[in-house]
């Protein structure tokens, strides 16, 4: 029997969603194959720690309990990244994995990749080759550096493969499709029976908008958030807005200062929701308004028009097909874009829903053959 050990490092909400389906593919492999065995050791950096930002995803998506929690919590970029580096190194030395899997573009991603690279351990980057070409975004730095030190680059789309090629990265690049598409397909079916989010928030299908905002350029700037909240209060339909903890204080401050803009009943500020409720809210929304990377894609998966509160997006296919439109942070423009949001052409650009199985198969083939 041949064996391979994977250390998976996650820390932030979108990483739990992505890693969940790869964990499922690992377990499915072990259940069906007797000649090779995979061991997955999950490390949670602790970057996200609120129950609604972390634990709920492990429970709903049945992600194996992390063997380690580094407990780094919140902090500056340097403090967070540095602490993960320091705390992860002894874990990697003790575990001696065949490959370290990292996801997306957070500080947990970069710190884990750097810790592994310095120990000469192979790194697999899931969601490689994404670029916004805006280096003011912390995620852009994290993506570029992680891609350039990774051994296996698992790309969600053909665009991401060609971006890596332009940067001279061709070795170890695999077009697998998007693990978030796998997740949406698998868990949306379960969410059908497990979520009553519409009834709970008194919403009718197609008669509400769903919003999320957490990018520092929006969520950390009073003027930007004032434009956004004022826009949200102008619609004839409710706007259900699960508020990310980064955004919480500024939203409270604006409402305390500006009142309810005269339309408070249409704005439904709620706590961050679990994945089942989120999928349900996304699927039935009239349109989605967001600055999240993952939520833009999920809007596309469910064929829901999306307005993205950013100047650029990494997920260019969602815009090119007509489902997603970028929008300046201006009250009137947000209102106009959301009112006119519409669908477009739907092409299976994010793969066939089997990206996670492909990732596991590539690792089995390429790591075990070394
Ligand atoms: C991080 C990622 C971002 C990703 C987002 C997903 C980086 C640089 N950013 O942004 O790419 O899109 O996660 O949600 O890695 N907080 C809590 N409780 C928590 C977590 C955070 O209260 O469980 C608050 C803290 O005040 C913290 C702030 O949110 O300072 C920001 O958290 P942080 O993890 O630094 O960045 P995010 O904005 O969540
Ligand atoms: N999400 C969720 N509950 C929420 C908001 C988001 O389950 O209240 C899910 C969402 O469906 C997607 C992921 O979290 O799968 C996206 O994470 P986030 O927007 O925090 O990060 P980003 O994708 O921008 O990095």
From TrEMBL:
The keyword Isomerase applies. The keyword Isomerase applies. Keywords: Isomerase. Transmembrane segments: none annotated. SUPFAM superfamilies: UDP-Glycosyltransferase/glycogen phosphorylase. GO terms for molecular function: isomerase activity. Residues 36-363 form the UDP-N-acetylglucosamine 2-epimerase domain. Pfam families: Epimerase_2 (PF02350). InterPro entries: UDP_GlcNAc_Epimerase_2_dom, WecB-like. It comes from the Bacteria. NCBIfam families: wecB. Belongs to the UDP-N-acetylglucosamine 2-epimerase family. PANTHER family: UDP-N-ACETYLGLUCOSAMINE 2-EPIMERASE. This is UDP-N-acetylglucosamine 2-epimerase. It comes from Candidatus Moduliflexus flocculans.
